[in-house]
Amino acid sequence: MKKNIIIIVSIIMLFVIVFLIGNWQYFSNNQPKIIHKGVGKLEEEQLLKPVKLEGEWAFYPNVLISLGDNFDSYQHKRLNLNVPFNWQAYVEPNEEGLSVGTYHVSIEVPSDGFYGLYIRTIRQASRVFINGVEVGAKGNPSTVLSAYASENDDKYTVFSPSVNKKLDIVIHVANYNYPQAGIVYPIEFGTMQTIQKHYHWKVFLDLVVSIGHMIVGAIYVFTFLQDHKRKEELFFGLFTISLGFYMSFINQKVFFLLFTDLSTVNQLRLQLGIIPLALLALTFFINAMYPQLLERKIFYTLAIVLGIVFVMYGIYNPFTKNERASSEFEMIMRKIIYISVTAPVIFYNIWMLIKVMLKRLEAVRYVLIVITAISCYSILLICNFLFGTPFDYTEFLLFLLILFGFASLLNYRANQAVLKIAALSEELLEHNQMKNEFLLKTSHELRAPLNGILNLSRSLMEGAQGPLKRSQQEQVILIHSVTQRIGHLVEDLLFSSNQMTGEVRISLRSVSLSVIHEVVAEIRSVMPKNSQVRVAAEINGDLPKIFTDELRFKQILYNLLHNAIKFTQNGTITVTAHVEQQQMVIQVSDTGCGIPTQELDRIFNAFYQGNHHHNKEGLGLGLSITKNIVEKLNGNIHVTSTVEEGTTFTFTMPLSTSENVSNEQATITSHTDTEIQLRLPLIYKGSDKKILVVDDNHVNIKALTEALSLKGYTVIAVDNGFDAIDYIKTNHVDCMLIDLMMNGMSGYELCKRVRKQYDMLELPIIILTTVMKQSDLLQTLKVGANDYLQKPISTDELFIRIESLLAVRQSSIDAIEVEMNYLYSQVTPHFVYNTLNTIIGLSYTDMENTREALYCLATYFRAKLNVHYRNSIVPIDEEMELVKAYLSIEKMRFGDRLRIKYDIDESIQLGIPALSIQPLVENAVFHGISKKVEGGTIELSLQREGQFVRIKIYDNGVGISEEKVQQLLNEESTRIGFMNPLKKFKLIKNASLRIYSKEGKGTTIVILLPAGGGT
Q1: pLDDT tens digits, one per residue of 613-640
Q2: Cα–Cα distance between 687 and 335 in angstroms, integer?
C-alpha cells in the first residue's frame, strides 16, 4: 500500500514539475518587460531565442483602426496596458454582443531582415498587420456579427521584413461572449529562422505524442485481434488511439494542419466528441482488467451518459442546435455542464483504482502509473477548459508514463507467463504420460464391448435367434457396419498408444517395390472418375528390394497418399524412389494447397490437425502413426512444403541384404515371380454353395480356388469383370470374391454392376484389397461390398468371413419365406370363398362378366403374392390397377349396395410402397360399407396439390369413433389392413396420413406425398 501511495505522489510531483517548468513564464510577474509605452527595443543577443513581447502595449478599446487611419486621432482612446491581459474590464460589447479592440506596438531591431511572431492564442478572432501589410489572421474580426468569424484556440506564425530596423505591429481583435478574450498569452518574437524552428519543434513534439499514442494503441488492438482473448488490450488500444487523436486536435493542432478545410465548429465538435470516447474506452479497460470489481449499474449508467455526451457534443445538440452561445453566461454554463457530465467518469475510474490498490490485485502498480498519469492530465485539461490555464509539455510526460506503465505491465506478464510455462511443462509431461496410459486402457476397454456388439450383430444376421424381417436385417447390418467403423477408430487409438509405449510388433522381410504400384493402382481405381487429381508411381523396376514389414510399409504409403488426396483439389500426386547412402529414399509429392511453415514441426504430432484447411475429418493420427512406423522400421521421415504449390513427404527404408533377409511366412500373396496361365472359367465341383472368384492374376486364382475347393465349396473362377457379369446372369451364385484392382473393369465397378441386379443380402461380395482396412477411403466400397480382406490373405480368416456371409444370406432367405407366409395370410379365406362363389354363379348366366371377374381376381392375386413387392416402391398406376381390380370384384359381390367413384389424374407419375392403398380401400369396404344394410359409396381421388400428390379415400359407411381414430394414428390398433400402410407411409420423407371420421357419417383418409416420391 505504501509503495502504491509513493507511486501516486511521485507521478503527481512529476506533473507539477513539468507543468511549472514548461509554463512558468505564463505565471511569473518577475520577467523583464520588453515593451514600454508601446515601443520595444531588442538587442542582437536577445534574438538568439524567441522573445516574449510582454509589457505596455498601446491598446485602443472598442475600435478596429484601419491602416489608412492615423493613430494620433485615437489618442483619447489609447490605453497603455500590460500584455497579456484579459480585456474584459476595458471593452464594451456593442448591440450585437461583439467586443473589439486594436493592439499596437513598435519593435526596434538591431538589423534589417525577416522577423516573425509566434501567436499562441488571441481570442476569438485576430488579424495581424506589420508595417502596414496584413501578414496573417485567424477568424475574421469585425464590428458586425454577420461578418464576424471566430478562431478555435489556434496557434500560428506570421513573418515580415523590417523597414529601417523597425516593425510596426497592429493587431485587430474581436470577441463574442468568450470570458477570457484578447491577447491572453504572450506573443513570441524573433528572427524568421528562430520562430520557424520554435514553431516546428512544437509541431514535431505534438506529432510525436499523437502518432506515438496511435501506434501504441494500434499495437494493442492488433494483438487482441490475433487471439481475441484479452479484451483489456482492445480497450486500452482504443483508448490510446482516441487519446492520440485528441492530442492532434489541441495545442498545435497537427490534425487540422493536414485537413485545413474543417470549419471552426467542426473542429470544436471533434475536440469535444473525442473526449467521451476516450473516457469510455478507459472505463471499459479498467473493468476488463479487474472484472471482479465491476459495479454493473454504475458502469452501464456512465457508459450511456458518455454515449449521450458524444452524440450531443460531437454530432448534434438538440438543445443548442449547434449554434454558438449568445452570452458570456451561456458560454460558462456550457463548459460547466460538459465538465459535470464527464468528470464523474474520471472520479469513478479513480475510485476503481483505489479499490484495486486496497485489494492488491494483479499488476496494480503498473496500471496505477497509467491511471494516475491520465487523471493528472485530465485535471489539467479541465483547468485549461475552464480557465484557459496553459499546460505545455505535460502531454509528452503523459505519453512517456503510459509507455513506461504498459511496457512494465507486459514485462510483468511475460515473467509470470515464463513461470507458469515452467510449472505447466512439468505438469504436462506427467499428463502426457497419463494420457498415453489412458488411451491404452481406454482402447482395450472399448475393444471388448465393440467386439461383443460385432459378434451379437453377426449372430443376428446369421439367424442364430431365428430369421429376421427384411427391415430388421437391414438395421442389424447398419449396426454391424457402424460398429466396424468405430472399431477401426479404436484400432487407430490402440495402435498409436502401443507405438507410444513401444509395444508394436513388426515382421521384417525382403519386400519388392512393386507393392508401391499395387497400392497406387488400387487407390486410383476407387477414386471418382471425374476426379481432377492424378496419382502416379514413377518407380524404376531395377531398384533393389527393401527390408521392412510389408503390411506396415503399405500403411505408410496409404496414409501419405490419402493425406495428399485430401488436400489436393486438382493436380498430380507422384510417388518416386531412389537409392541414397545404402537407404531407399521414397517421396510422395503433391501439388495441393501446401502446409504453412509454422505448422511443419507439428503435423507429425498425435491428434494435431492443421488450421490451414477446412477439412477436419479423422482423429489427426495418420501422420503421427506414419512417423512412428517409419522410425520403427529403422527409417526416418521429413516434410517440405510451399503454400499453394505443394508438399513432399520423404522417408527412408533400409535396403535388403543377404544378411538381413529372413524366411518368409507361408501366406497367399498378391505378387510372385512365377507366372502361370489357366484355362478359364476354372470350375471345381463341391457342395451346393457356389463361390465365384474374380481376379486377373492367375496365380491368385489358383491359390484361392484350391483352398476353397479343399473346404468343400463349388468354385468358379474368371479373370475379368465382364465374364463375371455374364456368368451370374445365367447361373446361381452364393458368394463372390473380387480383386479390387483388375484390368478392364475394376472390382469397384464390378460391385456396382452386380448391385444393380442383386442386393447385399441376395449375393454377398468380399473385396480383396492391398490397402489397410482402417482406411476411410475403403468405406466407399461398402456401397457394393459386404466385407473386404487385406492381402496377403489368411485362409482361416477368409473361410470365417465366407461362412458368416453365407449364414446371413440364408437368414435373409428364411426371413423372406416368413414374410411371404405373412402376405399369404393377408388373403382372407372368406374373401376368396365369396369371390369364387360369385364367379361360379356368374358363369351360368354371364360369361363376359365371368371372364372380367377372373381377370380381376388374377390381378389381385398377382399383386398380393408378388415376391418382388417386399419393401419396394411400385408405380402409382400399378397400385391403382390392384385397387380397381379389388373394387371390381367387390362390386360383383355387393351389386348396387356398393357405388364406386374415381377422380384420378392419369398423368401423375409417382412411386409408392407396394400394397399401401389397396388395404386401406379394403378396410373401407369391409369395416365401413358392408356394415350398413343399404350399402354405400367409395370415392377414390388422386390429384396434385402444390408440391404434393393428394390421395383421398372416402366412404360413407358406419364411421369410426374419435377414440379409435387416435388408436390407429398412435399405432395402438391391431388392424393389419390399416397399420401396415401407415408404417410404410411413415418411412417416406415429408409424407403424412390423416383420418377424418364421424360415427354414422363415414370416414375420409387423406394421404399427402411429395411429388418426387421416394422412401
Answers
A1: 545 455 556 687 788 888 888 899 999 9
A2: 108
Between CA 85 and CA 55 the distance in angstroms is 10
Q: How confident is the model at residue 776 (pLDDT cuts 50, 70, 90)?
A: very low
Q: For 331-347, write each residue's pLDDT tens digit.
A: 778 878 888 888 888 88
Proportion of the chain above pLDDT 70, given as a percent? 78
For helices 795-826 and 470-500, angle between their N-to-C axes, nearest 10 degrees: 160
Nearest to 877 by CA among 852, 914, 851: 914
Q: Cα 946 to the chain's mean position, in Å? A: 38
| Contact by Cβ (8 Å): 693, 720 | no
CA 267 and chain centroid, separation? 42
Strand 637-642, strand 646-654: pairing: antiparallel
- The Cα angle at residue 512 between residues 507 and 517, in degrees rounded to 5: 115
Q: For the chain, give the number of residues.
A: 1015
d(CA 239, CA 241): 5
Task: For residue 921, give the nearest of 966, 873, 889, 963 by alpha carbon.
Answer: 889
pLDDT at 503: 53
- What separation in angstroms does the CA of 874 have from each of 32, 801, 947, 950? 114, 35, 20, 17
Q: Full-prediction pTM beyond 0.70?
A: no
User: Residue 653: beta bridge partners?
Assistant: 584
- Among 807, 789, 779, which residue's Cα sits nearest to residue 704? 789
C-alpha cell at 982: 401407415
User: For residue 824, what pLDDT is reported?
Assistant: 40
* Higher-scoring residue by pLDDT: 327, 124: 124
Give 420-454 as a 3 state SS string.
HHHHHHHHHHHHHHHHHHHHHHHHHHHHHHHHHHH
DSSP state string for 57-82: EEEEET----TTS-GGGGTTT-EEEE
With cell 458518455, the residue in question is: 306
Q: Whole-angstrom Cα distance, residue 468 to residue 222?
A: 64
Q: Are the beta carbons of 709 and 686 closer than 8 angstroms?
A: yes
CA distances from 303 to 239, 276, 290, 597, 653 (A): 14, 9, 17, 44, 68
Identify the DSSP state of 189.
Answer: E
Contacts of 502 (CB under 8 A, 6+ apart): none
Mean per-residue pLDDT over the chain, rounded: 80
Of 375, 386, 379, nearest in space to 334 by CA:
386
Distances (CA, A) of 690 to 714, 717, 788, 814: 5, 11, 18, 19
> For 503, how many CA atoms within 13 A lie in the half-sphere containing its CB?
10
